[in-house]
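Q: Second attempt. The first request was missing the SMILES, so the protein and zinc ion are both included now.
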Amino acid sequence: MKSLNGSNRGITYQHELHVARHEKDLCSYAAAHVAACVATRHMVIAIFPKAVLEYLDDYLEREIPYFRATSFQAIQYLSLEADQICAEFMRNDWPDEIEFAKSVGGLAKRAICAARQSKVVISNGLGMSLALAGKMEAAVRAEELWIELLQHYPIDVHCFYTQEVFSASKSENLLSRLCSLHETQQFGAMHLQQQELKSA
Ligand SMILES: [Zn+2]
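A: Got both inputs this time. The predicted holo structure:
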């Protein structure tokens, strides 16, 4: 496992890979993660497919009593549909570097300004959405573009995938490639053994 935080030119960031067994696990896994970040007053941007976002909204309203307060929610939590964000930077089924910087980079920049002293955390399901649509290489490229973005913005990015992405992938080493693009990895409900990871 690499160091917990990456750094470049004094900018520190966290880029972590989270793998859940299936969508149901992913929902509860991502919800617990987002709730913990919101509760510690981080600013959280959740980018997931609609069904996951609906689960997150229900979970946050249930688990965090003050979450319903419009002002709190508006300041500390933003949920965005992954498909809509993908549409902003995908060109001919491939992540366009300039459009990614405009769309996702612009989002990060605005979040940092709005968060002021708070940490900005992005719960990211963009790669998973691309991979679930069969665009595995585009998902890997999007991860590389996140890394480029992290050289400029002090944000934490937690990328969530489900195990089905890897079993459906024709690219046998997709998991190890994604691992190599992240500082740390968490295998939530997947309980993947280190040996399996090495042979992936
Ligand atoms: Zn990532």
